[in-house]
TrEMBL record:
InterPro entries: CdaR_GGDEF (IPR041522), CheY-like_superfamily (IPR011006), Homeodomain-like_sf (IPR009057), HptR (IPR051552), HTH_AraC (IPR018060), HTH_AraC-typ_CS (IPR018062), Sig_transdc_resp-reg_receiver (IPR001789), Tscrpt_reg_AraC-type_HTH (IPR020449). It is found in: Cytoplasm. Keywords: Cytoplasm, DNA-binding, Phosphoprotein, Transcription, Transcription regulation, Two-component regulatory system. This is Two-component system response regulator YesN. It comes from the Bacteria. Residues 3-119 form the Response regulatory domain. Residues 402-500 form the HTH araC/xylS-type domain. PANTHER family: HISTIDINE KINASE-RELATED, TRANSCRIPTIONAL REGULATORY PROTEIN HPTR. It comes from Fictibacillus barbaricus. The modification 4-aspartylphosphate is found at D54. The lineage of its organism: Bacteria, Bacillati, Bacillota, Bacilli, Bacillales.
Length: 506
């Protein structure tokens, strides 16, 4: 129910307005305040959506009351009530954000029309906000997906982040949560738990793996915040037991542009889930070789991710063989080396799963007796994984991109996410994002935005349609956000573009 507060120092004026408005809008809850001070005091309890504010009142005048009420709740809207000789004052108030004004005395029809117009606007904003809240989880998972897999366009990242009603800080890190089999049933519970703990963006669930971008809390150490988060997540295992719970924690990075590296580190931290404590920091992962080799080894790990996604199997084989050779030359134990190679192959299988390639989890069929046997068995596993990768790409229909483009063009006015597209064509969200970037040279949000803006440009040629109507019709829920996107794409604001188009038609 909408709530309206009438503020006037004259009781007869308040009573008269309430009678008129209650008759015109019987579904609206109406209250009265005899002056500006009382109005300010009533805001917290009554929570009005609209305030009819007299300007000239003893003590606190109307503009002073509006300023204080706005500080309490910026979403409240105002209509000024003024005598004729206060006309210029009312115009000044409108410049300060007041929606409209009424002159004393006003006709009943004028009062109903003015108030009705603002109430209708409030209703529209409520509906838009409701739709936007439903769309935000889609925005959140898509932002995470694109940041972690390097498919994002900087222009749209800033605007998408603006839409997320989740505080962020300059420093962030990634945790990768491994869930038990059937983890999709636990997704909501894990997401709710993370929401309760503070600012973080939760990604989409890929198989058993759930990536989360966590923002650093300035009043806590990184290690303390991470351990607390991991323990809270793992506490869900008490109510949902099952093998597989594990949390890998990447290093802190100073900007979202570097968060992909933290994600890769968090995955590496999940390689050995047999540890008694079911979380591990990337910085605690043992590195084979000398101290001087550690930084090079970590660099090779990061390259390994990219090589798998790009299908550079000859290079993958070369690097894994080089790892075995290096361990052998340094006198590492055979069993330790085999475990290290197996961990890398597990990571490879997990990355393949992310991009939609199904492959069996690699295991050595026997304990190698020497490094020669280890090389042979590793080659066998790599060949099998390569065959799965190549078979997947051969099965993809040549017109997959065409299908997706056609779907986006037809449904551009809807809330389309990577997961929506994935279900449509039977591919993983990450693979679709990757395919767009590689095959079309654009991010899928770029293409969706282009479709919406082109549709908006056509609609602007119709003078009967308002910019607000066009905003909703092309798929945006917030006019200010639409205006920002439009200006970035067209180099003109919607108003400027419309004037130019209608001017040419005239």
């Amino acid at each position: 129910m909408l709530k309206l507060l009438i503020v006037d120092d004259e009781q007869i004026e308040r009573e008269g307005l309430q009678v008129i408005l209650q008759k015109a809008f019987p579904e609206v809850s109406i209250a009265q305040a005899k002056n500006g001070r009382v109005a300010v005091e009533m805001v917290d309890e009554f929570k009005p959506d609209l305030v009819l504010m007299d300007i000239q009142m003893p003590g606190m005048n109307g503009l002073e009351a509006i300023q204080q009420i706005t500080n309490i709740d910026p979403s409240i809207k105002f209509v000024m009530i003024t005598a004729f000789d206060m006309f210029d004052y009312a115009r000044q108030a409108i410049k300060l954000g007041v929606k409209d004004y009424l002159l004393k005395p006003s006709k009943v029809s004028e009062i109903a029309a003015t108030v009705g117009k603002v109430l209708e606007e409030i209703e529209e904003e409520r509906k838009s906000l409701g739709v936007l809240k439903k769309a935000l989880p889609l925005v959140e998972t898509d932002v995470v997906t694109q940041l972690l897999f390097d498919h994002v366009h900087e222009v749209h990242l800033d605007m998408l982040v603006e839409m997320l009603d989740i505080p962020s800080t300059d420093e962030s890190f990634v945790v990768s949560i491994l869930l038990p089999e059937g983890g999709e049933k636990l997704y909501s519970a894990v997401k709710e738990k993370i929401r309760q703990l503070g600012s973080a963006w939760v990604g989409a669930l890929y198989g058993r793996q759930l990536p989360v971008i966590v923002f650093r809390k300035p009043d806590r150490s990184f290690r303390s915040q991470s351990i607390s988060l991991a323990n809270e997540i793992l506490s869900l295992a008490k109510t949902s037991p099952g093998a597989g719970w594990f949390v890998g924690i990447g290093s802190v990075c100073s900007s979202l542009n570097q968060v992909r590296q933290s994600y890769q580190e968090s995955l590496i931290a999940t390689m050995d889930t047999s540890l008694p404590v079911k979380y591990r920091f990337y910085s605690d992962v043992p590195v084979l070789g000398s101290t001087e080799e550690k930084s090079l080894t970590k660099q090779r790990e990061r390259q390994f991710f990219d090589e798998i996604r790009l299908g550079k199997w000859d290079l993958i084989r070369l690097n894994v063989t080089e790892l075995i050779r290096r361990c052998e030359n340094e006198g590492a134990e055979l069993l330790q080396t085999q475990q290290r190679v197996l961990e890398l192959l597990w990571i490879a299988a997990r990355v393949m799963s992310e991009i939609g390639v199904e492959t069996e989890t690699p295991f050595f069929s026997y304990q190698s007796q020497d490094f020669r046997q280890l090389r042979f068995e590793t080659d066998r596993l790599l060949v099998h994984m390569r065959q799965s990768y190549e078979a997947h790409y051969e099965q993809l229909e040549a017109d997959t991109i065409h299908q997706i483009k056609k779907y986006i063009m037809k449904h551009s006015h809807e809330d389309i996410s990577l997961e929506t597209l994935g279900r449509k064509v039977g591919l993983s969200p990450i693979y679709i994002s990757k395919m767009f970037k590689e095959k079309l040279g654009v991010n899928y949000i770029d293409f969706l935005t282009e479709c919406r803006i082109e549709k908006a440009k056509k609609l602007m040629a119709d003078p009967e349609k308002s910019l607000k109507e066009i905003t909703f019709e092309v798929g945006y829920h917030e006019p200010n956000y639409f205006s920002k996107v439009f200006k970035k794409m067209v180099a003109l604001s919607p108003t400027e573009y419309r004037k130019a188009v209608l001017g040419r038609k005239g």
